[in-house]
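Thread: Glycerol-1-phosphate dehydrogenase [NAD(P)+], structure

OP (GT): Posting the sequence first so everyone is looking at the same thing. Length is 353 residues per the record. Can we get the structure tokens written out before standup tomorrow? I want them in the notebook alongside the other entries.
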Amino acid sequence: MIFPHVGDQFRLVYGRNLLPGLTADLSNYLVVTDGFVFEKYKEQLKNDYKVYIVKDVEISTLEQDVEKYRGVDTVVAMGGGMAIDAGKWMAEHLGRKIHSVPTVLSVNAAFCYKSAMRVHNVVTYMGRIFPEAIYIDFDIIKGAPKYLNISGAGDLLACLTASYDWKLNSMVTKSHKFSQEICDGAQYLLGMLAENIDNIREVNDDGIYFMCEAFRWVAEYSARMNHTMWESASEHAFFDNMEFVCKKPFLHGQIIGMTVYFMSLFQDNQHERALMMLKRLGIDVTLEGLGITEDQLRTGLLTLADFTEREGLRYTIINAKPITEEWVDMAVAKYKKDFSIVSDGQSADKCTA
């Protein structure tokens, strides 16, 4: 066992060819997924079912669509983060049990009791639901592009900045119950993440197993504490604001990697460790990789405090000290140097003469 036992809210089933066995025991179920995943795996679904293809996770969309499925007996959420979150939300609002089948590990959505929804294009975490089980089919996970699975490590790296914010929060507002044991556990997790980087990059069975066990460990502690602050704080607030500024979705683990880079620098907290791990993992946090401009990045940083206050987000380093234009100039210059980014946003090794 990589991590000590914490709880049993998130039961994991590992194996291969799991979908036929799962759905053979179900009937009149709702599959919540995306179009690509459904076409790829529909032949493995057994018995009678309905399918909902996720368009987005705006609450207004799902509130309208969920009414069509009041008669189903259970929900199977299958796909990436959006499909899993939509499935959780629909299962909770239908009052039905949910089985989660992640097809990629780019985000820890299957391991969160809350659903990451959108309200007028702003990320809003809501609800409380636990799966009957999370089905980790090694072949299905490996069927996704490697870079998508590797990026999920960014969500684990978030514990570096979030645990710092949590301790700060406990000294100022005490809004989220604090545990030194869990805070220390975050450092253990980061050490284990560093030890497993080669397997994560290979997306082999050991790498997949480590990622899922780490996600579960985080999830069980968050369920026990009834909040997620040790895994989601200033770096997730920065991500939320980047979505708001850019009006586009991001690959979750990838954008979190970038926001951990900046928030660890702002915290003066293990920043070089974060940089080293991002480089070893090979998560592309460049402007080009994220599909953003330098102006958007600067706006995301300079408006972050106002966004945090307006949305009523948790007290973090963002509230504790100002993000000045001088700091942003320094931070962006360092970022461009660390990742060899030239003025137009491209990495130097991607430019041609």
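GT: Both are above now. Quick notes for whoever picks this up: DSSP finds 18 helices and eight strands in the chain. Residues 349-353 have pLDDT under 50 and may be disordered.
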